[in-house]
Amino acid sequence: MSSELKIYFAGSMRGGRNDIDIYYKIIENLKQYGQVLTEFVGDKTVDCEVAPVLDEISIHDRDVSMLEKCNCVIAEVTQPSLGVGYEIGRAVAMKKPVFCLYRPQQGKLLSAMIRGADNGSTFKVTDYNDVSEVPELLKDYLHLLNSL
């Protein structure tokens, strides 16, 4: 996989930062495949409760610009997030390949709008139980992406 790959990682920011440690580990793994444009998503020092550095319009425009520049989107979708759903929708509209990672949890289901979009190639949803499984899942997906 070329180091020129530009990866947009999507994870919940304002919807809840419960999975920040998982985001960090995924991002660190993704770096071996290319540039992670949204590395800040896994930054534990980013506090969405404190006054944001950028206003909402600037955040939106910055993120859409990064979506336009990326080669693919990797999204951790366990923590429900309107923003992540929006990013995924925009990526699909831009014809960007999307790979969603989801940890099944008792009493919670992934949105049918995400699960139902899985076509096995350009939009793929994969369940996992532990972050230790993710490196192999990413390797397999990025290999698939390389063959498209």
From TrEMBL:
Its EC number is 3.2.2.-. It comes from the Eukaryota. Substrate binds at residues 23, 87, 111-113. It catalyses: a purine 2'-deoxyribonucleoside 5'-phosphate + H2O = a purine nucleobase + 2-deoxy-D-ribose 5-phosphate; a pyrimidine 2'-deoxyribonucleoside 5'-phosphate + H2O = a pyrimidine nucleobase + 2-deoxy-D-ribose 5-phosphate; 5-hydroxymethyl-dUMP + H2O = 5-hydroxymethyluracil + 2-deoxy-D-ribose 5-phosphate. InterPro entries: 2'-dNMP_N-hydrolase, DNPH1, Nucleoside_deoxyribTrfase. It is an enzyme of class 3 (hydrolase). The keyword NAD does not apply. Monomer and homodimer. This is Putative 2'-deoxynucleoside 5'-phosphate N-hydrolase 1.
